[in-house]
Amino acid sequence: MAGIVSRAALRAGQNPPPWRLRARYGYRSLPRRLKLVLVAGLFVLAASPTFYSASAWAQNSARQRQIEARPIPGPARALPTPRVHAVKPSPSHSNRVYSATPRGLFVSDDGGQAWVPLPVASTHEEVFSLAVHPADPGAVLVGRRDGLWHTRDGGGSWAPLGYPTPGPYIPLAIALSASQPNVIYMATARQGVFKSADGGSSWTSASTGLPEAAAGGRPEELRTLVVHPRNPDVAYIAHELHGVYRTTDGGASWQPFNQGLGLPLWQAIYPPRLAFDPDDPGRLYLVFGQRIHSHLIKNRLSVTSDAGEWLPVEVELPANTRFVGLSVDPRRRALHFWAQDAVWELPLPGTSRQRP
User: Fold this and answer.
1) Element holding 302 (H helix, E strand)
2) What is the enclosing helix (H) or strand (E) of 291?
3) Across the strands, what pairs with 121?
């Protein structure tokens, strides 16, 4: 009968059926000592916590559990308008936060619980970008359609800065050097990246090596830009299709910095956000939203390693949530993810969750 193998056929050397192979070469046929090793190994695996597959909290020697970002405890924190271009906490004022929105500039002095509009040159025109002085919470730069403006008295008075090119430009991202605040990098719409070494009085082009727009002939529009806290010649930009680029020569040239990210992606993602840890400047954090399918976008977090590559952080972040800001709170030793209706917090390595 088809499918049946007789004892005689087995004795004649024909291949045994699969069930017979499992019986002859399965667990029961193993030596007793090897059985004990396997059983002990299974108990160890069952009792072990879930670990990172590539120790995403970088160079910690001890393995760590998978972690979850949670809303900051206390009163609810929400952004001032339905759309926000950028959120920047003041590095020198623990509770002051600025927000660039289509309705102008807003400021909060309680960590984002309440916001008030802050006129720029007596108007509330759209603000696309901003940067806060590392040591003076009242010194702020903002980018609007009519160029770059700065205040040194918390918004009491404003003055325009010079144009880097003839004609109007829109600053989409601004970053100051924490070690040399007069060094400014600025990414613009259609004009590329510029750098100033004198606080914005003069500018030089700094776009060599950056990706071109699909139409060609001009750089991509870049909305995420950070400068190394201790080296003004090192800066990073990030783009939702091309990933991260880095300069180590003050903007004279840029190179891709995507090892470990799997970028560029074939599908657009939420605009990426970058943030340095000011107390550990070897750690640069990147968060971006990756489309899984039409109804699910997952936020991914990565951190740079000592080897100069990105490592994934196995962390639970809210899905289908667009982060408009990423920052490190030195006081709480935590990453803050700024979303429309909440600020999510993730303790940094070696810290535990703190209460306000």
Assistant:
1) strand 296-304
2) strand 284-293
3) none
Q: What percent of the chain has pLDDT over 70?
A: 78
Q: For the purposes of burial, counting CB atoms within 10 Å of the CB of 326, is it exposed (0-12), middle (13-18) or buried (19 or more)?
A: buried
Query: Strand 315-316 relative to strand 67-68: parallel, antiparallel, unpaired?
Result: parallel
Spatial separation of the C-alpha atoms in residues 290 and 299, rounded to whole Å:
6
Tokens of 66: 């998978």
Half-sphere exposure of 216 (CA within 13 A, CB side): 0
pLDDT, tens digit, 9 for 90 and up, residues 115-151: 999 999 999 999 999 999 999 999 999 999 999 999 9
How far apart are alpha carbons 69 and 256 in whole angstroms? 29
Q: pLDDT, tens digit, for every residue of 45-88?
A: 333 333 333 344 444 423 344 578 999 888 888 899 999 999 99
Cα 126 to Cα 120: distance, rounded to the nearest angstrom: 10
Q: Which DSSP symbol is given to 35?
A: H
- Amino acid letter, 314: E
User: Are 143 and 129 within 8 A, CB to CB?
Assistant: yes
- Per-residue HEC secondary structure of 198-240 comes to CCCCCCEECCCCCCECCCCCCECCCCEEEECCCCCCCEEEEEC
Residues 6+ apart with CB under 8 A from 109: 93, 95, 96
Q: Where are the beta strands (DSSP E) in 112-264?
A: 116-118, 129-132, 140-144, 147-151, 159-160, 171-176, 184-188, 192-196, 204-205, 224-227, 235-239, 243-247, 255-256
